[in-house]
């Protein structure tokens, strides 16, 4: 989070920068704006394991089958808002299928569940950018032991801004949200949570998550992001840091909830 410092100085400075960039962006010829844009491709991946859980584990399949168990992981460390999508249309199922193919995920089934997850992605002085991610979830079996595995596939996401009217207008302008045109999904993510058996009979939960984002930066903004390679490297490192910061807390909560449920089942 970017916090405001020095009273209204940060806000005023940000407002001035937004005004200058908005003017430059608005003056670009619309027919050449897309051609002048630079595409940044950011990628991050992380693998995290929980602390071990002692046996027994006969009922672990039942725990993975509970909808609230998947919600624990989707909610993450920020306690994001989660809504299950109960009215799943053909367009959503087809988009899910295509993303599974692109990410080399398992084939969709009729038992897969769908959720909308709303997060507060970024906060600037005068502007808050929100994100809504639609995620398909499935439980599969893996290995000779047949332990359950979650697969979370990002199907689509949408961002919107709240705050100052000027900043919201600028956000919509540079992201193309002021235009009515359909583009390919720019963010892709596959998250697998598996059960790893240990020699002593205990288990651990392992999460492997990857996140890739393709961003088109208008020429006006590239004036303050002159080095494409460095921007991609820094952006990828930021994605890795985000995953590594969020996953351990989610896995810890999932592990604790599993032990509580098992002991009371």
Task: Kindly state the number of beta strands.
Answer: 7
Average pLDDT = 80
Q: State the strand order across the main sheet.
A: 1-7-6-5-4-3-2
Tell me the span between the first and last alpha carbons: 41 Å
As a whole number of angstroms, the C-alpha radius of gyration is: 21 Å
Report on this model:
The chain is an alpha+beta fold and 265 residues long. Helices cover 40% and strands 33% of the residues. Strands 1-7-6-5-4-3-2 form a 7-stranded antiparallel sheet, with helices on both faces. A hairpin with a 2-residue loop joins strand 3 and strand 4.
For the structure shown, list the relevant keywords.
7-stranded antiparallel sheet, alpha+beta, about 35% strand, about 260 residues
Short description:
By secondary structure, this protein is of the alpha+beta class. The chain has helices at 9-27, 30-36, 60-65, 67-75, 90-102, 165-175, 219-222, 228-264, and strands spanning 38-49, 81-84, 113-124, 127-142, 147-163, 187-197, 203-217. It contains 8 helices and 7 strands; from the N terminus they run H-H-E-H-H-E-H-E-E-E-H-E-E-H-H.
Helix and strand layout, with pairings?
Blueprint: H1 9-27, H2 30-36, E1 38-49, H3 60-65, H4 67-75, E2 81-84, H5 90-102, E3 113-124, E4 127-142, E5 147-163, H6 165-175, E6 187-197, E7 203-217, H7 219-222, H8 228-264
Antiparallel strand pairs: 1-7, 2-3, 3-4, 4-5, 5-6, 6-7
Helix pairs in contact: 1-6, 4-8
